Amino acid sequence: MRVVTTVNGTEQVADDVWPGESLLYLLRERLGLPGAKNACEQGECGSCTVHLDGEPVCACLVAAGQAIGRSVTTVEGLSGADGLHPVQQAFVEAGAVQCGFCTPGLVVMASDLLARVPRPTDPEIREALAGNLCRCTGYEKILDAVRLAASRQARP
Amino acid sequence: MDFLQPTTWGDALAARAERPDALAIAGGTDVMVDLNFDRRRPGALLDLTRIAELREWATDGDAVRLGAGVPYARVITDLGTQLPGLAMAARTVGSPQIRARGTVGGNLGSASPAGDAHPPLLAAGAQVEVASAARGARRVPVAEFYTGVKRSVLAPDELIAAVLVPRAAGPQQFCKVGTRNAMVIAVSAFALALHPDRHAVGTGIGSAAPTPRRAPEAEEFLAGELDWASRGPLPGTVAAEFGQRVAAAASPIDDVRGTAAYRRHSLAVMARRAATWAWDDLRRAA
Question: How many interface pairs between A and B have CB atoms less than 8 angstroms apart?
């Protein structure tokens, strides 16, 4: 099966895709985008979170064929020519990264939150990140990072 | 494996009839887990995400006709006022990522006793609209839809088109027990709907029997005890008795998520609280 999809603004073509394959496998193994991580493969951990037509989804739960003609943004698509995305920069500065495995999913979810809710409350941050597991940090530094990114974004 | 991607409802029904070996997929939150873990290898995937009408909802008389492919996220944003019980349940589903993809139609298709949408659909008295190419559409009362653990009346050549949920005529509540707020498969769940227009009570029990089910005897008891005319307070003893009768309607088992005894106990507590909250809401609205 041929899958043609737009990933991070560029049209991508993959051939011989197995119809039962996930969007996550397509991204990582066929398109060379290892940012979204493969962990639980059942939507429990959030480490494969990407945007599909602007919605944050677990790439492991999207069939590759369901992404045909759709627009996918992965964590690789967040940072631009002028460096890290503000959420990524805040994660670095706040010490929100330890082993780093959960980081791409958290960065995608946090950037999604801040795009929708510029000044989120703590409960809003917790709710937005509820589907992303981190086994290193205890989450406090991650919450610090999102608050830091939000405070910078809110500054005129 | 083939990947079937119809763009019209007619084509989808035709594909369903022609390919009994196809597995329907919408949000993928159940189906992809089975594929990823090698639990299922269907002959084809029947992708329903390209059919625009499945992703729509509309008012249909006194009900909302909710397309089978409307994700939980939109139930929350669009239907909190008209279908408060279902919207409350939708808020407890998985995580934002899961709610962006998962659908009420998928919950019905999987027919897991733990599905979060089932209790509020039962309490509201919803109907499931299913269709086949050969026989057209039919509507099944949701209480008759489930036939066993992950089994339903859906025929092999049928697809779920929509669910018709009566718009709330009174307060509704949804309660769910789990180990944390997010990403929880219910240990037990309970939904309640007050129907002040016909002096009736609706209930739905989740995760505490082979199928989602109502508690009809408890419904009749509470409807008979409530002071519908002057809306006097709900006595604590009546609320507690209602809770006991809801618990008695369940047939729970011990499993990895909880014991049968805890499921019964938690149902009694949830039902008592839900009745109290909903009745207090109705009294305040008076």
Answer: 92
- Say yes or no: B195 and B235 in one domain: yes
Looking at the partner chain, which of A19, A41, A109 has a beta carbon nearest the beta carbon of B45?
A: A19
- Say which of B3, B94, B100 has its CB closest to residue A55: B100
Distance CA(B145)–CA(B148), nearest Å, equals: 10
The DSSP bridge partners found for residue A94 are none
Report the CATH number at residue B80: 3.30.465.10
Is B281 contained in some domain? Answer: yes
**B206-246 pLDDT per residue, tens:** 999 999 999 999 999 999 999 999 999 999 999 999 999 99
Q: Is residue B204 one of the residues assigned to a domain?
A: yes
Q: Is the pLDDT of residue A82 over 90?
A: no
CA A42/CA A64 separation, integer angstroms: 15
Residue that finishes a domain, picked among B166, B199, B217: B166
Mean pLDDT of A40-61: 97
Structural domain for B243, as ranges: 172-285
Rg for chain A (alpha carbons), in Å?
15
Any residues with CB less than 8 A from the CB of B223 and at least 6 apart, and which?
B199, B200, B201
The two structure tokens encoding residue B256: 């990895």
> What span, in angstroms and rounded, lies between the C-alpha atoms of B203 and B215?
6
Domains of chain A (ranges plus CATH)?
A: 3-77 (3.10.20.30), 86-154 (1.10.150.120)
What is the reported pLDDT for A155?
66
Residues B130 and B182 grouped into a single domain: no
Q: Does a structural domain hold residue B137?
A: yes
| Interface residues from chain A to B (CB-CB < 8 Å) | 1, 18-20, 22, 41-44, 46, 49, 55-58, 60-63, 65-66, 68, 109, 112, 127-128, 130-132
Here the tokens at position A17 are: 């895709």
| Option in A19, A49, A58 nearest B1 (CB) | A19
| pLDDT < 70 positions in chain B | none
* pLDDT value at residue B125: 98
User: Do B190 and B240 share a domain, yes or no?
Assistant: yes
Instruction: State ipTM.
Output: 0.96
Q: Tens digits of per-residue pLDDT, B68-97?
A: 999 999 999 999 999 999 999 999 999 999
